[in-house]
């Protein structure tokens, strides 16, 4: 077989979470409900922020971006996974696999940078509240958001390009729920050490650097909060950061565990479960975390529901 024939794979086959039919049907039902909840929760949060003038602040501007990232990330993976649960042949074309890797990797990178941006926003709000409106002006917020999206996209373009230049020989079975970068690299029939180095470098740039910035921001935030003399003041200051801090802990923890050491990292099963966590559970949890733990969002919900109730009463009469 010639080198050209060995290099070109027209289609990959995703092995998914299980080969048992009953298990696949059960997972289809469970993940379908979770995906719909993720779509509904994140879209409603974005609409709420758009409709309520009290939420037109930098914090909620970045939150709306986070919701869009979560919805897009879930959509890049979950619909195809749901289709494969009910399909006998679980193939994905070469080009579609590359596109899926590009979008999922890019959106994942965008989320990590965005979380660092949100930590900086909370740092300014707590540590320099009097200058907050001047520092976090609309132009800066827009530039920070664009930087988040661009950094994730550029990294993804580079990683996807070098990954799909690898010769796959006759290997086409991806032992994963999606075209995840480590799973695709394992198919290569050449030495992939340079790709693994590239993953570590991009992880340092787009994962560890934002994580360190988040850590520094929260060290300063906690230090400032502890200096506040009134208990009520400390509570209020901590409350402004609680939701974001919860999301940061959930989001960064598993990814650091997965990608910093690709050679000695988690098992294939753990990789699959981590992907399910990010593709389904995080998009479901984020709107709940920000809604249940945030007085402003709850107040906006109550106002909107009150307006809808009043409108329905008028229509009924």
Structural description of this entry:
This protein is mainly alpha-helical. It has one domain: Up-down Bundle (Rhopdopsin 7-helix transmembrane proteins), CATH 1.20.1070.10. The chain is 77% helix and 3% strand. Keywords: Cell membrane, G-protein coupled receptor, Membrane, Olfaction, Receptor, Sensory transduction, Transducer, Transmembrane, Transmembrane helix. Putative odorant or sperm cell receptor. Belongs to the G-protein coupled receptor 1 family.
Number of DSSP helical runs = 11
Strand content: under 5%
- As for the number of domains, it is 1
Provide the succession of SSEs: HEHHEHHHEHHHHH
Number of strands: 3
Q: What's the main sheet like?
A: 3 strands, mixed
Mean pLDDT: 85
> What level of helicity do the residues show?
over 70%
Low-pLDDT segments, ≥5 res: 1-6
Task: Compose a concise summary of this entry.
By secondary structure, the chain is mainly alpha-helical. Helices cover 77% and strands 3% of the residues. The chain has a 3-stranded mixed beta sheet.
SSE layout and pairing:
Blueprint: H1 3-7, E1 11-14, H2 21-51, H3 58-85, E2 91-93, H4 94-127, H5 132-135, H6 138-163, E3 173-174, H7 181-185, H8 193-227, H9 231-259, H10 268-292, H11 295-316
Parallel strand pairs: 1-3
Antiparallel strand pairs: 1-2
């Amino acid at each position: 077989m010639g080198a050209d024939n060995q290099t070109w794979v027209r289609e990959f086959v995703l092995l998914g979470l299980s080969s048992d039919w009953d298990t696949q049907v059960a997972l289809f039902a469970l993940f379908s409900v979770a995906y719909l909840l993720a779509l509904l929760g994140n879209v409603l949060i974005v609409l709420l922020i758009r409709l309520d003038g009290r939420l037109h602040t930098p914090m909620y501007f970045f939150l709306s971006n986070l919701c869009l990232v979560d919805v897009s990330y879930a959509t890049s993976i979950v619909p195809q996974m749901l289709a494969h649960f009910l399909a006998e042949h679980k193939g994905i074309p070469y080009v579609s696999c590359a596109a899926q890797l590009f979008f999922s990797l890019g959106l994942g990178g965008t989320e990590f940078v965005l979380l660092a941006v949100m930590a900086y926003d909370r740092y300014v709000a707590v540590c320099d509240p009097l200058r907050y409106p001047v520092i976090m002006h609309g132009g800066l917020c827009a530039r920070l958001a664009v930087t988040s999206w661009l950094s994730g996209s550029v990294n993804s373009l580079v990683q996807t390009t070098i990954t799909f230049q690898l010769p796959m020989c006759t290997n086409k079975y991806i032992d994963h729920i999606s075209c995840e970068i480590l799973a695709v690299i394992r198919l290569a029939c050449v030495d992939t050490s340079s790709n693994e180095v590239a993953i570590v470098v991009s992880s340092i740039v787009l994962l560890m650097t934002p994580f360190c910035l988040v850590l520094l921001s929260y060290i300063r935030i906690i230090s400032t909060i502890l200096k506040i003399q009134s208990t009520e003041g400390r509570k209020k200051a901590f409350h402004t950061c609680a939701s974001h801090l919860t999301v940061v802990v959930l989001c960064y923890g598993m990814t650091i565990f997965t990608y910093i050491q690709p050679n000695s990292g988690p098992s294939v099963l753990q990789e699959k479960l981590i992907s399910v966590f990010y593709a389904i559970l995080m998009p479901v949890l984020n709107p709940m975390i920000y809604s249940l733990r945030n007085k402003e969002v709850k107040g906006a919900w109550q106002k909107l529901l009150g307006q809808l109730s009043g409108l329905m009463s008028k229509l009924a009469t």
